[in-house]
């Protein structure tokens, strides 16, 4: 899926922002938030460059998951009380 999204950019198709899992050499999976946009020639059709940036959001995603798990546990406890 990640490679197909990158290929869209190379093919001249625009995609705004996306979260992409990246497999590291050590086997870890990191999540990056990726933004890209194409720069077109004056004809408006020919892609002459792609501008892209990314940021590693793995720690943020892990923190979000911990919060979700904590909320689920609290919901279960509340149901048991009532």
List descriptors.
82 residues, alpha+beta, Complement Module, domain 1, 3-stranded antiparallel β-sheet, 40% helix, PAC domain-containing protein, PAS-assoc_C
Tell me what the structure shows.
With 82 residues, this protein is α+β, with helices and mostly antiparallel strands. It has one domain (2-81): Ribbon (Complement Module, domain 1). It is built from 2 helices and 3 strands. It has a 3-stranded antiparallel β-sheet, with helices on both faces. A hairpin with a 5-residue loop joins strand 1 and strand 2 (29-40). The longest helix has 24 residues, at 58-81.
CATH domain fold name: Complement Module, domain 1
* SSE-based structural type: alpha+beta
Order of helices and strands: HEEEH
CATH architecture tag: Ribbon
Number of helices: 2
Poorly predicted sequence stretches spanning 5 or more consecutive residues: none
Across the major sheet, the strand order is 1-2-3
Radius of gyration: 19 Å
Average residue-wise pLDDT? 87
Quaternary structure state of the chains depicted: single chain
Sheet with the most strands, sense and barrel status: 3 strands, antiparallel
Total strand segments: 3
What best-fitting shape do the alpha-carbon axes yield? elongated
Give the CATH class. Answer: Mainly Beta
Residues in helices, as a percent range: 40-55%
Strand content: 35-45%
Number of domains: 1
Distance between the ends: 44 Å
Organism: marine sediment metagenome
Protein name: PAC domain-containing protein
InterPro entries: PAS-assoc_C, PAS-like_dom_sf
Domain PAC: 16-69
